[in-house]
Specification:
Blueprint lengths: L5 H16 L18 E6 L9 H8 L2 H4 L2 E6 L7 H7 L4 E4 L1 H9 L4 E5 L7 E6 L14 E3 L5 H9 L6 E3 L6 H5 L3 E6 L3 H7 L4 E5 L11 E5 H6 L1 H20 L2 H10 L5 H15 L14 H13 L37
Parallel strand pairs: 1-2, 1-3, 6-7, 6-8
Antiparallel strand pairs: 3-10, 4-10, 5-8, 5-9
Helix pairs in contact: 2-10, 2-11, 5-13
Length: 348
């Protein structure tokens, strides 16, 4: 959910305190292997507070998949403007979660980071309109107040693609109160979060998916530094393998993991997490990427993303080589695209 409130910040602090004190429901930690080797400690930094968009990573923790690989994984919650890319690039944490467009922007700024897995194939960013408005497409947006982060790459792309006749763009207020109070508004959100909040408060929103405009960065991708790949490839392999397993488990049966996420982020009720899991499932499993290829990526998608970022002046032409922003090295062969040249990424 991309709504920030004082309550949200307080509950995030409470969640961290609960993690520190223990709730009695924490996943069992890994034990030494048969040779007596201690588990490898790994830190995974999130780009936001724990939510359904991170469900597969938490499922790998809850179900013991990281432990099976001999990894002792600490998942570190994020928040507004979490510097995940910088932390991964500096080596402050071994792994991070981000979106593909931010990865490319980070690389343009000098961060030597690589994406090793992309669980969410269809970006969940949406623009909500009132269901009763009759608006069913972006082309019908006119004479509305659009509450959104106008400087975000996706928002700039939207403004370049659409006439938005008679529309006024104002900052996103951070809650759905103004949206509910004014039928002549539209508001940004994530399809598995804000529409649910609107419904819970008595409204009905229709999400228009930004991906349908063609701006579709991979979401909640697993990133690592090139140095980490060079020095600890086996650890990266273990992390990717367990994370893919976790995402498959979450998409099939998210209930136990959702209860754990709720403990880490009490503001996210089990009900909204269940809604989120239902919404995220078709974003992960698509016609192009069936379950057995979960996590895969293509060079074409990365190149398109780079071209769009150049178009909206988020990066300059020639600043990044999109094929160096990802690798399929650590995904099982069945997870790789069947197309030849389009599937190339960073070489092993």
């Amino acid at each position: 959910m991309r709504i920030v409130t004082v309550t949200g910040l307080l509950t995030a602090v409470i969640a961290l305190l609960l993690v520190g004190c223990g709730t009695g429901n924490e996943p069992a930690g890994p034990s030494a292997d048969a040779e007596g080797n201690a588990p490898i400690k790994v830190r995974l930094a999130l780009n936001w507070y724990p939510e359904a968009e991170h469900g597969g990573y938490y499922a790998a923790l809850v179900n013991g998949y990281y432990a099976d690989e001999g990894l002792d994984v600490e998942i570190i919650p994020g928040g507004p403007n979490s510097p995940v890319i910088q932390r991964v690039a500096r080596g402050d944490v071994e792994f991070g979660i981000e979106n593909a467009d931010r990865v490319l922007v980070g690389r343009a700024q000098g961060a030597d980071i690589v994406t090793v897995m992309a669980p969410i194939q269809t970006n969940p960013q949406c623009l909500m309109v009132h269901a009763e408005s009759g608006i069913e497409s972006f082309e019908e947006l006119k004479d509305l107040t659009l509450m959104m982060s106008s400087g975000a790459p996706w928002a700039i792309y939207l403004q370049k693609q659409l006439p938005l006749e008679g529309c006024e763009i104002v900052p996103n207020p951070g809650s759905v109160a103004q949206f509910l109070a004014n039928k002549e508004t539209a508001q940004q959100g994530y399809v598995f979060s804000e529409p649910y909040v609107v419904r819970e408060k008595g409204g009905e929103a229709r999400p228009l998916m930004i991906a349908d405009l063609g701006y579709n960065p991979y979401t909640s991708v697993l990133i690592v530094s090139s140095k980490q790949i060079e020095q600890n490839a086996e650890v990266v392999q273990k992390m990717v393998r367990a994370s893919v397993r976790g995402w498959k488990a979450y998409l099939e049966s998210p209930e136990e993991t959702n209860r754990y996420i709720h403990e880490q982020n009490p503001e996210m009720s089990v009900d909204i997490l269940a809604f989120g899991a239902d919404q995220v499932r078709p974003l992960c499993i698509t016609a192009e990427v069936p379950l057995d290829r979960l996590g895969t990526m293509t060079a074409d998608r990365w190149q398109t993303m780079a071209d769009q970022l150049i178009e909206v002046d988020a990066i300059e032409a020639g600043q990044v080589t999109p094929s160096e922003a990802f690798t399929l090295e650590f995904l099982d062969p069945v997870a790789e695209p069947s197309t030849g040249e389009a599937s190339t990424g960073t070489d092993p």
